[in-house]
Amino acid sequence: MNSSLSERQESLSKILASFDFSNIIKFKDKVAVKTHVGDVNNTTHIAPEMIRIAVDKIKELKAKPFLTETSTLYAGPRSDAIGHINLAYEHGFTPKVTGAPFIMADGLFGNAEIEVEIPGILFNKVNIARDIVLADSMIMFSHPTGHILTGIGAAIKNLGMGLSSRKGKLQQHSSIKPYVNKSECTFCGECLKWCPVNAIIEIDSKAYIQNEICIGCGECLSICNFNAIKFNWGVQSDDIQRRIAEYALGVMQSKKGRSLFINVLTDMTKECDCMSIKQTPIIGDIGILASTDPVAIDQATLDLTKQENSRTLSEISYPALNANTQLEHAEKIGLGNREYNLIQL
User: Fold this and answer.
1) Residue 211 or 63, more confident
2) Where in the chain is the domain with CATH 3.40.50.11440?
3) 176-230, what's its fold?
4) Between 147 and which of 54, 153, 206, 262 could a Cys-Cys bridge form, CB atoms 3.0 to 4.6 Å apart?
5) Residue 262 pLDDT more than 80?
6) pLDDT per residue as tens digits for the range 264-294
């Protein structure tokens, strides 16, 4: 069953009206509203008119909302702040429609970050987008979809991958450090100038990254205008899910008790909204979930999609992947709890 935008807006308004925001959002807070604007050709992302309802609620609480996102690790229209904001505006996420400015949390090139200590198993420090750490509180909108690497992309992935800096994304995705594709390198010299440890040198009029010196910061990825800097996507699904969960924990170090998570279970597709293609939903609309616990809300998302379709969204999209890995690890490290009570409004 498909729902209309007006029905979704009505449901979200009802949910927000039922929440006690007294501890989450305080007077004059700078409130990050995290969403995903969808890539080129994507039409199933959460509508900007939905974001407006949350923005208006934040203003009602006498706080200061701003929409936010981070740059992608891979090349494309969302790989830097300029392209990302322009695409956001093309998809309707303008101040006029949403009621709030759009500010990239990781700066112009995706390298504005703060290193955060965490009680993790894989990491003891993670690199989080600067303005997310500095924001007082947060409302996160996630659009659950299938995902080619994690089985499902919802609140945990939106937190961990969606709010890390470029260095953080590289740390989650890659099993090796960046390298140069010689056929695409023009040796403009920009990567040499930006490398903070002078790991890049010239060999035969091409840039070359010295692995023994490289610290994996991703600066060269962000600055190369010719897509000549490459990295390895070879981290296995279970590994990347655990890394994402630990990065999500890093985000929450400064947002404990100050965040609300909203999963919009509509227009759910096999691939995530990062794909630059128009997609057809693979299951019917279910509704909207809200919680202060990112683990509980993702568990409920899997449970409800299975209840309605005999299989979870992850099992329908990528049956060979186990999306429970991210939930199990997230609970293990203290990000949240998989047990929950479902209250219907």
Assistant:
1) 63
2) 5-170+235-332
3) Alpha-Beta Plaits (3.30.70)
4) 153
5) yes
6) 999 999 999 988 889 999 999 999 999 999 9
Pairing state between β 287-291 and 259-265: antiparallel
Q: What is the 3-state secondary structure (H, E, C) of the chain?
A: CCCCHHHHHHHHHHHHHHCCCCCCCCCCCEEEEECCCCCCCCCCCCCHHHHHHHHHHHHHCCCEEEEEECCCCCCCCCCCHHHHHHHHHHCCCCHHHHCCCEEECCCCCCCCEEEEECCCCCCCEEEEEHHHHHCCEEEEEECCEEECCCEEECHHHHHHCCCECHHHHHHHHCCCCCEECHHHCCCCCHHHHHCCCCCEEEECCEEEECCCCCCCCCHHHHHCCCCCEECCCCCCHHHHHHHHHHHHHHHHCCCCCCEEEEEEECCCCCCCCCCCCCCCCCCCCCEEEEECCHHHHHHHHHHHHHHHHCCCHHHHHCCCCCCHHHHHHHHHCCCCCCCCCCCCC
Find all residues with CB under 8 Å of 157, minimum gap 6, and list them: 142, 147, 150, 244, 248, 326
With 0.85 as the threshold, say if the pTM is over it: yes
Neighbours of 131 (CB within 10 A): 21
Task: Output the six-digit token pair for 84.
Answer: 């990302």
Mean per-residue pLDDT of the chain: 94
Location of structure tokens 């995530």:
272
For 148-197, what is each residue's pLDDT tens digit?
Answer: 889 999 999 999 999 999 999 989 987 667 899 999 999 999 999 988 88
CATH class of domain segment(s) 5-170+235-332: alpha beta
